[in-house]
Specification:
Blueprint lengths: L4 H13 L5 E4 L5 H10 L4 E4 L3 H8 L10 H9 L3 E3 L10 E4 L14 H10 L8 E4 L7 H13 L16 E4 L18 E5 L2 H11 L6 E4 L2 H32 L3 H8 L23 H10 L6 H27 L8 E5 L14 H11 L3 E5 L5 E5 L2 E6 L11 E4 L8 H7 L3 E3 L12 E3 L1
Parallel strand pairs: 1-2, 1-4, 2-3, 4-5, 5-6, 7-8, 9-10, 9-13, 13-14, 14-15
Antiparallel strand pairs: 6-7, 11-12
Helix pairs in contact: 2-4, 5-6, 8-10, 8-11, 11-12
This protein binds nicotinamide-adenine-dinucleotide.
C-alpha cells in the first residue's frame, strides 16, 4: 500500500511526540539559535544551518558568539544531538525546516528579501514529500504565498506542489513570526504565544503541533498573510507609540515639563494606556525596519501609509535632535563642538544586549564627527567596533576612568553595568538621552 500525505503527517506528529522528529533551523542568529536551544531542551536533535562558516565552527566547538547565550547552553544542546552545518543536502533528512534569516532594507529603504529567496532556493532541491517548511523571518503580508511557495514549487526536481489539505500530495508551508524581545527576561520565551498561519489547515495544524512541543500556547490564524500582518502590527504599534513620545519629549522640553514624570503618572491608569519611553532613536533589526516592509507593500494597493511613515520619520530624526542638544549644552558652557572630545556611553541599540544593528549611536557618532568632534565610546559589550552594515568605525572601547578627560559624555544606552551617579560625579558635562540619571541632582546633567 502506498503511503499518503495524511499518513506522513501523522507519522511526523508521532515522531515529534517520541522526539525522533528531525527539525532543521536555517539561520543560527539572534532568532534561530535560541529557537534551536529551546527545541534541544525538549530533547530534539536539531540541525542548525548557516552559511557563515565561523558560526558553524564556533557552534560545533560548543561555544557561543552571542553574549546572552552561554557555551554551556550549546554543549547541553549538543548532548541532545544539536549540530550546525552549511550543507544544505542535510535538508532532505528533516521532517520540519524553520527559516530564520535576516529581512533587512536595501539602500532605498525597500524590503530586501534576498536572504529569504537564497535560502528557499537552497532548500528546494532537497525538498521531500510531506515535509513542513516554516518561515519565521519578519516580512510583508503575502511573502509566504507569493515568494516562498512559488520558489519551492519551481525548484524541487520531483515537481512537488504545496499540499493545501491533508489529502493532497506535496509539502506543507506555514508562516509563524518570531515575537521575542531581546534582553527582556520578564516573559519566558515559551510563554510568548506562537501565532501560526498555514497554506491550508493541514499545514497550520502541523506547524502548531511542532510549536506545541516548546511553546505553552499556539494561536492558529486563517492564513500566512494574517500571521505576517500580525507581526507587522505589533512592531508598527511600538514604532508609532515611540514616535509619539519622542515628539512629546521635544515639546515637553520646550515647555519645561519632564515627560518621564508625565509617563510615570499616566501609567498608573489601570486601562487604556501603555507606557512607551522616548530615546535617542530606534535601533535593532525590527522596529526601524518592519514598518517600511508594510509601507512598500501598501503601494501595490495604491495605498500610502502616511501615519506609519510619519512615525518612522520622527524616530529617524531623533539622533539629529540629540546632536543639536549636545551642541546647545556645550555652547552654554562656552565650548564649541568642533575640536571637543565627546564620549558616547553605550553603542548597542538597547540596554544589556550586544546588538549594534541600526543603533542610533552609529548615526550620532557620524553626525558628531562631521561637525568636527573627537568622538570615542564605551560599551561593555563591544571591546572594538569595525565594519558593519552601513557603518565603518574602527574604534576601540575607551575605559570609564577616562571620563574626566572628555568635554561631554552622552548617555545613549543605559546598560545596567553603568554606575550613573559615579559617571555624573566624574564628568564635566552629561547629556542623558535615556533618563538614566533620574534622581541624580547635578548642574552638569542635561536631559534630552
Ligand atoms: N533579533 C530579533 O530580536 C528579532 C525578533 C523578532 C523577529 N526577528 C526577525 O527574525 C529574522 C532573523 O533575525 P536575526 O536577528 O536572527 O538575524 P541574524 O542576522 O542574527 O541571523 C540570521 C542568520 O542567518 C544566516 N543566513 C543568512 N543567509 C543564509 C542562508 N542563505 N542560509 C543559511 N543561513 C543564512 C546568517 O549567517 C545569520 O547567522 C529577521 O527577519 C528578523 O526581522 C528578529
Amino acid at each position: 500500500m502506498t503511503e499518503t500525505v495524511l499518513d506522513r503527517t501523522h507519522e511526523i506528529i508521532r515522531r515529534l511526540e517520541t522526539r525522533e522528529g528531525r527539525i532543521g533551523i536555517v539561520g543560527m542568529g539572534y532568532v534561530g539559535l535560541p529557537l534551536a536551544l529551546l527545541f534541544s531542551e525538549e530533547r530534539f536533535a536539531i540541525t542548525g544551518f548557516d552559511i557563515d562558516p565561523h558560526k558553524v565552527k564556533t557552534l560545533n566547538q560548543g561555544s557561543s558568539y552571542i553574549v546572552r547565550i552561554h557555551g554551556a547552553d550549546i554543549q547541553s544542546a549538543q548532548n541532545s544531538g544539536f549540530a550546525a552545518t552549511a550543507d544544505y543536502s542535510q535538508i532532505a533528512k528533516m521532517d520540519v525546516v524553520i527559516i530564520c534569516v535576516p529581512t533587512p532594507l536595501n539602500e532605498y529603504h525597500e524590503p530586501d528579501l534576498t536572504y529569504v529567496t537564497d535560502t528557499v532556493r537552497s532548500i528546494a532541491p532537497y525538498l521531500q514529500e510531506g515535509q513542513l517548511i516554516i518561515l519565521e523571518s519578519t516580512t510583508y503580508p503575502g511573502t509566504t504565498e507569493e515568494v516562498v511557495v512559488p520558489l519551492l514549487e519551481a525548484g524541487n526536481p520531483a515537481g512537488l506542489r504545496v499540499a493545501r489539505d491533508a489529502e493532497s500530495r506535496g509539502f506543507y508551508v506555514a508562516f509563524s513570526p518570531e515575537r521575542e524581545d531581546p534582553g527582556n527576561d520578564t516573559v519566558a520565551r515559551r510563554d510568548i504565544p506562537k501565532v501560526v498561519g498555514g497554506c491550508g489547515p493541514a499545514a497550520r495544524d502541523l506547524a502548531c503541533a511542532v510549536y506545541a512541543t516548546i511553546f505553552n500556547r499556539c494561536v492558529p490564524v486563517s492564513s500566512p498573510a494574517v500571521a505576517e500582518m500580525t507581526k507587522l502590527l505589533e512592531n508598527i504599534y511600538r514604532c508609532v507609540n515611540i514616535a509619539l513620545v519622542n515628539e512629546l519629549k521635544q515639546l515637553c522640553m520646550r515647555m519645561g515639563i519632564d515627560l518621564f514624570e508625565v509617563i510615570d503618572a499616566a501609567k498608573t491608569k489601570p486601562f487604556g494606556f501603555q507606557a512607551f519611553y522616548p530615546g535617542p532613536g530606534l535601533g535593532g533589526h525590527c522596529i526601524p525596519i518592519d514598518p517600511f516592509y508594510l509601507a512598500w507593500k501598501a503601494k501595490q494597493f495604491d495605498f500610502h501609509t502616511k501615519f506609519i511613515e510619519l512615525a518612522g520619520q520622527v524616530n529617524l530624526d531623533m539622533p539629529y535632535f540629540v546632536v543639536e542638544n549636545i551642541i546647545e549644552a556645550m555652547s552654554q558652557r562656552g565650548k564649541p563642538l568642533c575640536g571637543s572630545r565627546v564620549l558616547l556611553l553605550g553603542l548597542a541599540y538597547k540596554r544589556d544586549i550586544d546588538d549594534l544593528r541600526e543603533s542610533p549611536s552609529l548615526t550620532i557618532i557620524e553626525l558628531l564627527q562631521k561637525r568636527g568632534a573627537l568622538v570615542e565610546y564605551n560599551d561593555p559589550f563591544f571591546p572594538t567596533v569595525g565594519r558593519g552594515r552601513k557603518y565603518a568605525l574602527n574604534m576601540t572601547c575607551t575605559p570609564l576612568e577616562k571620563i574626566p578627560e572628555f568635554d561631554c559624555v552622552v548617555i545613549v544606552t543605559d546598560h545596567s553595568q553603568y554606575d550613573f551617579a559615579e559617571i555624573v560625579a566624574k564628568a564635566q558635562l552629561v547629556v542623558d538621552t535615556r533618563n538614566a540619571t533620574k534622581g541624580i541632582v547635578s548642574a552638569n546633567v542635561v536631559k534630552c
